[in-house]
Amino acid sequence: MNPWLLVASALLVLIGFTVVAAATGPLARGAGAQNLATLLICLVLLLLAQGFARPSYGDAALVLALLGPAGTLVYARLLGPELRGAAHHRFVWLWTPALVAVVVLPLCAAAGPGRAAVKLLVTGVLLVGGNLVGTDALRRAGSGAAEDG
User: Fold this and answer.
1) DSSP 10
2) Alpha helix (H) ranges present in the chain?
3) CA-CA distance, 133 to 136, in Å (whole number)?
4) What is the mean pLDDT of residues 25-38?
5) pLDDT tens for residues 106-127?
6) Cα distance between residue 70 and residue 10, in whole Å
7) 3-class DSSP assignment, residue 64
8) CB under 8 Å to 54, separation ≥6 — which residues?
9) Residue 40, CA atoms < 13 Å, CB-side half-sphere
């Protein structure tokens, strides 16, 4: 087992925790867990792409990084009244970019300069941006700041 697959296995354990959090407990925690699960699944796909030398897994991660935040935005829009008064963690703004950087930058170094590294960096930027936008949407829906148009 190479180091890429070992880190992917560790992240799979975290995905298990997010599934439990999404399936149990309050609705706000489930919506936040869905947002986190999207991030973790994308990172696992990137690590598996490197570990198994299958670039198509990286393509799947790129597509999920593009479409994943849409699910969180749908939750925030449709479940806004149920999310009122929910506490959303502010530290997401710190650990999301850090987690993505810890995974994506070594992958870029392993890929070397070229199209693969650019695709990894684009996927990383989309992951950070999408996760932060989704977290902000959940926070706004929970605080009642989102107005119905």
Assistant:
1) H
2) 3-23, 27-52, 55-78, 80-83, 92-111, 115-143
3) 5
4) 81
5) 999 999 999 999 999 999 999 9
6) 26
7) helix
8) 48
9) 19
Encoding tokens for residue 116? 């693969």
Q: What type of residue is 70?
A: A
For residues 30-49, average pLDDT: 90
How far apart, in whole angstroms, are the C-alpha atoms of residue 32 and residue 43? 17
Using alpha carbons, list the distances in angstroms from residue 31 to 14, 38, 43, 75.
16, 11, 19, 7
DSSP assignment letter at 24: S
Residue 143 to residue 59: CA distance in whole angstroms: 36
**How far from 140 is each of 55, 77, 86, CA to CA, in Å?**
37, 10, 10
52-101 pLDDT, tens digit per residue, is 999 999 999 999 999 988 888 888 888 777 776 565 566 677 788 888 99
* Side chain identity, residue 91: F
| Cβ(138)–Cβ(84) below 8 Å | no
